[in-house]
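Researcher: Re-running this chain for the archive, since the previous output was lost when a drive failed. Same request as before.
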Amino acid sequence: MAANTILKGKAALVTGSTQGIGLAMLKALASAGCNVTMHGIPNDMEKIQRLCKQIAKDNSVEVTYSDANLLNPGQIRDMVRESHSAFGRLDILVNNAGIQHVAPVHELPDDKWDAIIGVCLSATFHATKAALPYMLEQGWGRIINTGSMHALVASPFKSAYNAAKHGVAGFTKTVALEVATKNVTVNAICPGYTDTDLVRNQIADTARIRGIPVESVIRDVLLADQPSKKFVKPEDIGALVVHLCGPHSDSFTGACLSIDGGWVAR
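Model: Regenerated structure tokens:
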């Protein structure tokens, strides 16, 4: 059995959870005894299948997988319904999936804007709309949205991402108010730069392009606005998710919780 079973018997769906922050969230929920639905683009199905089997084995939980296209509302609804059907309940929804494109506003392609708004913001709406009825019927639910620090502050050349994540913050607060008396909480987690493979690849690329050491990229480029000068650990984000779903989480709702090494304290 999992060492920590505070969520034993509950079921969660985590979008964008085949790697990075989403995978850390999924593993943390599974380690707390939660049955989980993994979601992501099926670039390597063998790897995904191995991950699902390993997580299930390590934690004595059930793990399912969805490759729903988050730009398709019908597929999002199907994903939520199938996750509920697999476990007979849906207690936790983590809207984590996101995409990014960096460019000045006047050079940002229309299709990139639409895709970023679609995946980061509209998909959060569609998944929440589909999951809430199950939670309200059960009389308990937890919805957690990944906002990033860009839900709270802006950075240049990321207009679509900033707009989407600020929208996630507003959506989070609104839904939290609507269900505040229903034993369903809605919160956003806002990480700073996090130690993931995706970010590590950016470091190597940036060092090569700029002709500077990796250490300088980390300190002076990526973490220039992160006062701790340390990456956020994905496991810390996973632990926060578990806490927001645990027995002492009832009064956490409508919050946008920064976990960013002090980024938004400036």
